[in-house]
């Protein structure tokens, strides 16, 4: 009787352990299946499990209102600038628009100087902060040094055209399109005819591209700030500054130029 009860007890324990093991296995499989169905971009860049500004040490320092819903949210807002939803939405829009301008600006700053130094393309003035003054010269300003592309002779006409065209484009974007023509567009990511390559057709790809855009845009804003400071301190373009630094790093660096604030024009 004792042995029978003992074996029955062992059998019950074995059955319980087996059921627990199967349950744990099912839980692991369910998690793996769930992870397999969640887009990679959503796992890496969105939601509570996204990468954060302090990595594993930022779990208790992330504000509750930063939930990972939007691209580029790394849970960092020490000043509480995003605590109010309306303020947060406005700052998101401002940051994204400035990031896009900075991306274009950084490209425009670097391209003429790179083409002039390494491709032999002739410009009237390839350095970005000096190029605009060519519009006051007798021959005017030629885009990329080619008169057949864009030729600007009058600063007043150029400013007027820019104000009108950019004003209309910005009003169109801010209002989400116009009634009867591409109305109800997203004010930040309009898509449709503004995405002729169809880069945003796949939701997972679109989510990842949003993150790449804002991350590169933030880097471009810092880059443009660096270009501005370099221009004030050294009076040279960023490519020439980099060339000088690589040629003699101990002499041409930020510390050596820290007390110089007048461009050598």
Report a brief summary of the structure.
With 265 residues, the chain is an all-alpha fold. Helix content is 54%, strand content 2%. It has helices spanning 2-37, 40-45, 85-118, 128-131, 155-174, 203-234, 238-247, and strands spanning 141-142, 151-152.
Structure description:
The chain has 265 residues and is mainly α. A two-stranded antiparallel ribbon has the order 1-2. Helix 3 packs across helix 6. The longest helix is centred in the first third of the chain and has 36 residues.
The coarse silhouette is globular
For the report, how would you describe the main beta sheet?
2 strands, antiparallel
Low-confidence stretches: 20-38
Q: Based on helices, strands and strand pairing, what is the structural class?
A: mainly alpha
List the helices and strands in order.
HHHHEEHHH
Give the count of helical stretches: 7
**Multimerization state:** single chain
Strand order of the largest sheet: 1-2
Question: How many β-strands, per DSSP?
Answer: 2
Cα(first) to Cα(last) distance is 105 Å
Strand % is under 5%
Q: What is the residue-averaged pLDDT?
A: 80
Q: Helical proportion?
A: 40-55%
The radius of gyration is 29 Å
């Amino acid at each position: 009787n004792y042995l029978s009860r003992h074996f029955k007890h062992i059998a019950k324990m074995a059955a319980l352990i087996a059921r627990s093991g199967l349950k744990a296995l099912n839980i692991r499989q369910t998690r793996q299946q769930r992870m397999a169905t969640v887009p990679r971009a959503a796992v890496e860049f969105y939601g509570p499990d996204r990468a954060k500004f302090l990595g594993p040490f930022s779990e208790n320092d992330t504000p509750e209102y930063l939930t990972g819903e939007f691209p580029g949210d790394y849970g960092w807002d020490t000043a509480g600038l995003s605590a109010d939803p309306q303020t947060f939405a406005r700052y998101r829009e401002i940051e994204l628009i400035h990031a896009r301008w900075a991306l274009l600006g950084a490209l425009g700053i670097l391209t003429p100087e790179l083409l002039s130094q390494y491709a032999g393309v002739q410009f009237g003035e390839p350095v970005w902060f000096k190029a605009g003054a060519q519009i006051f010269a007798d021959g005017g300003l030629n885009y990329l040094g080619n008169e057949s592309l864009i030729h600007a002779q009058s600063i007043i006409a150029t400013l007027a055209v820019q104000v009108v065209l950019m004003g209309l484009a910005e009003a169109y974007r801010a209002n989400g399109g116009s009634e009867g023509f591409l109305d109800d567009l997203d004010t930040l990511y309009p898509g449709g005819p503004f995405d002729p390559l169809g880069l945003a057709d796949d939701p997972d790809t679109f989510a990842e591209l949003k993150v790449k855009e804002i991350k590169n845009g933030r880097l471009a804003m810092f880059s443009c700030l660096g270009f501005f400071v370099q221009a004030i301190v050294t009076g040279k373009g960023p490519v020439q500054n980099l060339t000088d630094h690589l040629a003699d790093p101990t002499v041409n660096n930020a510390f050596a130029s820290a007390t110089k604030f007048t461009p050598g024009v």
